[in-house]
Input
Amino acid sequence: MLSAQPVANLTAPKACTLTLAHFRHFWGCGRLTSVQKISKQYGEKYLFKDISLHIGKGECIALVGANGTGKTTLMKIIVGEVEPDSGSVARSRLSTAGYLPQDGVFHKGKTLYKEVETVFDELISLHERIEEISREISIHTSRNNPESLRMEGLVEELGTVQNIMEHREGYNTETKIKQILSGLGFKENDLHRMTEEFSGGWHMRIELAKLLLREPTILLLDEPTNHLDIESLEWLENYLMSYGGSIILVSHDSRFLDNLAVRVVEVSMGKVTEYTGNFSSYVEQKTQRLAILHSTYENQKRLIQKTSRFIERFRYKNTKAKQVQSRIKMLEKMDLIELEKNEKTISFDFPQPPRPGRVVMALNKIIKSYGNNPVFEGLDLTIERGDRIAFLGVNGSGKSTLARIIAGSEFFQDGTRKPGHNVFISYYAQNMAEELNPDKTVLEMVNEIPAPISGKELRTLLGCFLFTGDDISKPVSVLSGGEKSRLALARMLITPANLLVFDEPTNHLDIQSKAVLQRSLENFTGTYIIVSHDRDFLSSLINKVVVLKNGELDLYHGTVDEYLQKHHADRDFTEEMEKKKSAPQPGKEQKRKEAEERQERYRKLKPLKDALNKIEEEIAIMEEKKGRIEAAFTDSKTYESENKIQSLNIEHDKITSRLKFLYDEWTDIEEEIGRIIK
Output
């Protein structure tokens, strides 16, 4: 069981949670935490070796890399749950870290409201810290040393902690708790339910709510979207956009990363590589970097071969001895370029299905309840050939239940379910770990399905899903979540089907595997239904959206993105109309005051916007120079002159350093503009 408690800075006298605004005021620096030359080894294998990373103020970092590269371990090292074998983590004195693991969190013994309310117990620690600082100040005063650096630091810290107290006690805690819980999908009548009554995914939401209320200076989230529906995901995304602290994200949801991340840190081959920009920018930059790296590798290989031939040819000639020794030393000092290994990924296509009738499935007057809790009361739905439908709705609205009814694996009390002519259904369950027999091996799980293919073809199929060699003899009980997801997909391919039903298929797939599944569905000529909160995954697949709410459904013809745009526009319009109804009409005095506020805002904004424009112009120039240098790296002629290579490398480092500074300045000014506009 993983600990779900945030880890406060280990050097602070008392654990206290600061907002970033207070942190900046007190420290006035740009670095919250630095990971310095850390290594972590399990057995003979290094997860990473001598890696360094800094976490800047207010930035959101996406941590990416293949499964097993050490992303989660790195996060645990940052919060202090795991000790590195070597190296150190330097934390600012008053910073705190909050960590949300992927799973394994369970709460009991309190109601939902009381459990979440415990985060405000930390105010006691703040009171105690104020008393400690006051005592230290008294001691320094009694020693007639009021101007010492320590004294100045204590006075500033006292002011900071008092400001934090005002901030934490200044808002209505009940309102804040309800706001966070509502955003994460809890209802008013959930507040007084015991936490034991909630399922595992809701426990993760409870822990996330507690973290957001604590407001740690560094928020580390490991796959936070796995347990959210689209509405809660969008709420979290908007909340994090305005979050005051720094954020580190691990997620397979590329759109989530695109909308939040300003820097991407890739963990691969025991090293970290940093990229400026969001996830899409990272993908483009990595492609360019790998092309440059491969070209440089080939050039270095040719240089080594040429040098080695010279050494072998003239090794025993006295007249060439000095040159031979010079080249031997050059080879010894040369930093060998190492190419990244191609990450293995799944590879498959759904078999093209038999053609069904026009109507694939008809549900009529479906009534479904669990005990006294009704889910559907007379639901109708017709699925036609070629439909590609997304089921959307908050958790508990019946998406998974409806998917199981369509798949034929869920009982309902009344109504009719009528599959169309020549319809064959294949179903991917959300709780796939429970669906697979833990005592059977990988091969036995695919063998149990009546297969029109040979044993050799089954092994080939498993190989496409990265089950090779002894892997096919592994029992299901030892498989990871991602491996179980791949096995479930493999089972779907054994028998051709023309109606595919997926319930959260991407939850345990990495980004590469998710992309392969997406491409396979794009090429599939049958009909499918997908329950998912992954907007990027759904964006290119869907032509109809079914929204479930209060036991009823709304059918929208169009893509998920088109539906969400309409939904947001409708919601914004409704909120605006409500505001206009409740807002008092301004009088002359109010209008005069508003005009003065606009003028004052303009006076403050103009120099900031001018500075921003200058920075953007310089960034454009620097990026253009950097691009020209990187293009030169791909030109083989560049490597004919060692001086030229050295000069380009020095210039590239200077530009990269300058760009980092400019982007930090740009971010600070943007945030200042945002505070003024607010």
